[in-house]
Every structure is written in C-alpha cells, then in structure tokens.
Amino acid sequence: MKLSVVGCTGSMSGPESPASCYLLQADGVGLDGGPRVFSVLLDIGPGGFGMLMNHLDPRELDAVVLSHLHADHVADMISFHVFRRWFPTGPLGPIDVLAPRGAVDRVRGVGGDGPEEDFSQDFTFRVHVPGTVMRVGPMTIESFPVLHPVEAYAVRVTGPSAAGDGVVTVTYSGDTDACDGVVEAARDADLFLCEAAFVEGRDTVRGIHLTGERAGDAATAAAARHLVLTHIQPWTEPQEVAAAAATRFSGGIELARGGAVWEL
After folding, report:
1. Is residue 212 a contact partner of residue 203, using CB atoms and an 8 Å limit?
2. Per-residue pLDDT tens digits for 75-113
3. Are 144 and 169 in contact (CB under 8 A)?
4. DSSP per-residue string spanning 172-213
5. Once rounded to an integer, what is the mean pLDDT over residues 53-75?
6. Which domains does the chain show, CATH number per domain?
7. Which residue, 60, 15, 22, 30, is CA-closest to 230?
8. CA 158, chain centre distance (Å)
9. Are 66 and 106 in contact (CB under 8 A)?
C-alpha cells in the first residue's frame, strides 16, 4: 500500500498544508480482470480536495472514509460534491462514503443546502459499524470507536505490500484521546498515523486529543512498528511533539507533512 499525505494540519488549514486528508492506494484487479490501482481517501478537511488533484484525478477515487464530522475533517465534502455533480461531461454518479451517523445532515449544513438535498447522486453514505469490514478492492477497512467529543472512529486498513510479498496494515487514529479503541486499531500496525494535537502541561483538558507522550504510549501498547505524528496545529512546534513521543515509544517516529509518501 501507499500512503500519501494530502493535508495534515490540526484543527484548521495551515501555511504549509491543508487540514486532515490522507490518500491510501493499493494495486488490485479491476472488474475487467486487468490490474488497477484502488484509492481510498481518509477525511477531507478544508483545502484537501484541491490539493488532492496533485495526487490523482478525483474521478479515480473508490471510497471516502470520514473519521468524524468536525469541520476540519469533512468541510471539503462540498467541493467533492460539486466536482461529482457538475463535471463537464456529466454527473459522475455516487461513491461510497463510510461515516458516522448524521453525515448527510452534516454535509448539508456545510453546503447550506435545503432538506431536499440528500447527495444520493454523488455519495452512498454507509455507517461505521465496529466489528464489520468494508472492502475496497484489495483493501479491508475496520472501524474502532475512539474518545472524542463527537462520535469518532480510528480506522485500520489492511492491504497488499508494495513489494507484493504479503500484507501490511495502516492505522489512522482520527481524532482521539487515550482509549482502548485506538490501541486496538493500531495493534501490530506497520504504520500508525496518529494525531498528537495537544502538548502536556499546556493543554490540560481531556477527552479530545492526544499529546506526543500519549501517542507514544498508544503506539507502544499496540506494538506498532512505525509512528507518524499528525494533526499538529500551526502554533505548535512539531519537533517538540516528536521528542515527547520518543520518550514513550522506541520505534521509528516521523512527522506528517503535506506531500509526504510512504510505500509499505
């Protein structure tokens, strides 16, 4: 699988990156029996849709997964809706969107649309159901409830290795504080894309975000192989977050940045 960071700034778009938006891709077999690349988008925050065009033609997306419905993770669903509804050659038809309950109302609210708009021309909304698997080509997607002020999920995606010699797992924490769900989602993950929006001693409220230390704790508890820290706000020094995580996790640690790519 290949992970591309479309956007990674926490809570808002930033000077170097849009808000949360990540692209996972894997080689598979199409309906015609020939090879093709399957593509899944994890969240689509402000600025994410435009930046996505630097990675692929949005018509090639196979599914979108929304970890939760805060605006910094879903606002550009409206841009995607416009793209699919009004494409010059005609509407592109619906694409699967895995999301928490209430996603249609949330997207409608972002767009300022009336109650008659259900987006069914563009999106087929499916609800996160822990314990079930959504399949997109060779990738399987599992949902794990996590701790945030709204209904939120970490997602675990398993698919073929880039070398073609086995399977690999990428876990995306979404937004969460420390909880069992995020550890289970990241269990033995090859790459753990984990938020670390808060700083110990500065951000004392609980139940919203992880700190670098708590992200490191989660990675250690899950026995993840590699930790990539993300969702860091523009006012926070990323290297300080990485140093904090390193006090709790002895594996490889990197910082997400717009345009970064990992092939697993």
Report:
1. no
2. 999 999 999 999 999 999 999 999 999 999 999 999 999
3. no
4. E--S-BS-HHHHHHTTT-SEEEEE--B-TTT----SS--BHH
5. 98
6. 2-263 (3.60.15.10)
7. 22
8. 14
9. no
CB 181 within 8 A of CB 68: no
- Please state, in angstroms and rounded to a whole number, the distance separating the CA atoms of residues 214 and 198: 9
Token pair in block for residue 182: 């995020």
Q: Are strands 252-255 and 261-263 parallel, antiparallel or unpaired?
A: unpaired
- How far, in Å, CA of 119 to CA of 125, rounded? 9
Spatial distance between the Cα atoms of 155 and 174, rounded to a whole number of angstroms: 8
Residue 252 has a pLDDT of 97
Amino acid at 123: F
Residue 163 above 90 pLDDT?
Answer: no
Instruction: Tell me: pLDDT of 179 over 90.
Output: yes
Q: Which residue has the tokens 């599992």?
A: 142
The mean per-residue pLDDT over the stretch 126-144 comes to 98
Amino acid at 128: H
